[in-house]
Amino acid sequence: MLHKIIALGMFALLLSACAGASKPATEITLELTDFSYTPSSLTIPVDQPVLLTINNTGLVEHDFVVEKIDVTDVVAQDSGSEHHMQGMEEGASYDLHVATGAGQTNTLQFTALEPGTYKIFCSVQGHIEAGMIGELIVVSE
Ligand SMILES: [Cu+2]
């Protein structure tokens, strides 16, 4: 229970820190825990830059993956993880992928080009099975 209160407090601090900035990009803070995304459903506009802040408050490494999505202007700040990515062939790559170590925060910028609903998942082995999935909804105005 105490952990939950502390986590909520940190989240509120992050939110208030972001509120002062006025940037054209859509800014969303995503919290990664063992083993879920909060919020688990993200809605973003098509053809507009998005800045995702990926905050891992869990005790193990997690990542943010969208396997197939039409995107441009991708800038990923990554922890440079070497973990095995589930279901991934040698040399293949996900369209969006940011790994985040326990207690770390990374960012991901991108612009989505095609409206639709895309699956988000954590590619660390066993985490999809543990329920670490979400959805990214790209909407036209
Ligand atoms: Cu995970």
Q: What is the subunit organization of this protein?
A: single chain
Looking at the structure, the CATH topology is Immunoglobulin-like
- Strand line-up in the sheet with most strands: 2-1-4-8-6
Using the alpha-carbon principal axes, give the shape: globular
Rg estimate, integer Å: 15 Å
List unreliable stretches of 5+ residues: none
List the ligand species. copper (II) ion
Q: How is the main sheet built?
A: 5 strands, mixed
Structural class category: mainly beta
β-strand number? 10
Order of helices and strands: HEEEEEEEEEE
List keywords for this structure.
single chain; 141 residues; mainly beta; Immunoglobulin-like; five-stranded mixed β-sheet; three-stranded mixed β-sheet; 1 helix; 13% helix; binds copper (II) ion
Can you describe this structure?
This protein is mostly beta strands. It has a single domain (25-139), classed as Cupredoxins -  blue copper proteins (Immunoglobulin-like, Sandwich), CATH 2.60.40.420. It is 13% helix and 43% strand. It is built from one helix and ten strands. The chain has one helix at residues 2-19, and strands spanning 26-33, 36-38, 41-45, 49-56, 62-66, 71-76, 96-100, 105-112, 116-121, 133-139. A five-stranded mixed sheet has the order 2-1-4-8-6, with helices on one face. The chain has a three-stranded mixed sheet with strand order 3-10-9, with no helix packed on it. Strands 5-7 form a two-stranded antiparallel ribbon. β1 (26-33) and β2 form a beta hairpin. The longest helix has 18 residues, at 2-19. The protein is globular, with a radius of gyration of 15 Å. The termini are far apart.
